[in-house]
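If your schedule permits, I should be very grateful for your opinion on a structural question. Please examine both parts with care and let me know of anything in them that strikes you as inconsistent. The record follows directly beneath this note:
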Amino acid sequence: MSKIQEALRRIQQSGSKPAAQTRRKDDIAAAMRARPVRVANLVEQEEFTVTEADFAANDRKLVFDQKALRDAGLIAPDYHIDLLSRQYRSIKRPLIGHAFGKRATKIEDGNLIMVTSALAGEGKTFTSINLALSMAQERDHSVILVDADVAKPHVSNIFGVHEEPGLLDLLEDSQLDIGSLIMATDVDGLFIFPAGIPRLHATELLASSRMDRVTKALARITSDPIIIFDSPPLLQTSESSVVASLVGQIVLVVKAGQTSHDAVMSALATIGDEKAINLVLNQVRDAGNDNQYGYGYGYGYGYGKNFDGSATTTVAPE
């Protein structure tokens, strides 16, 4: 039995109960200077050149409204935050290790991480946001959360930037530059890249050579950056497979007790065997605990055929 199949077997044994469901201006240059280890040298990828000055020119800074996020079910309640933090430390550690070769095999483009799911409603945006928050706590890395779910840009909507220029605009307009579109947040080291104005030909833009150059530029935009793409469900859009082809690691979110084995296997088949695949089991219920908190997290970890990895599953009470 392969490592991914073993993780899936454990997923199938899990059960769950359904979980409930401002921006202000500031000086981004000061935010970047506060973390000098994270400021990039000159970066060039064909026409894309990004410097610290580009970030300074963008005077927008987004505020993480924790109450609003909590009310929307996108971060855990206060009484559950310690558990959430422990779970996401377990999730992020191998991702970071394989991105930068820290006590693990280094994966090409491993700092480009796609977060997706087989179907909608499995918690991929929840995972993207909380993984980005956890990774931003790392001393050596800046984190850019890219809203690549261009059909349903949840991250952009959450932060009120759904009408702001972003990724799609950059892909279509050669006069725009990356640095002017990425927004700092009031979380040290965490930046948001909006999806941009919706377009009918979004898939073609994402599949363009320009997107490939944008992705490579993002991968080098600061010192040892981590780029997290909140991407569409694999089985419901064509954009997700395009994003999957550009990243080094993929986090597949699976909702315990709801996502079928066939759906997970079909999603994995769209990715192929060459990618590093990480399974996150969401909304796990601990059979020995009847408390209902509305949250639960699990983690399954495995690789395609060209990589070595371990298969583990951890669960936390709902």
In short: Residues 212 and 246 are 7 Å apart (CA to CA).
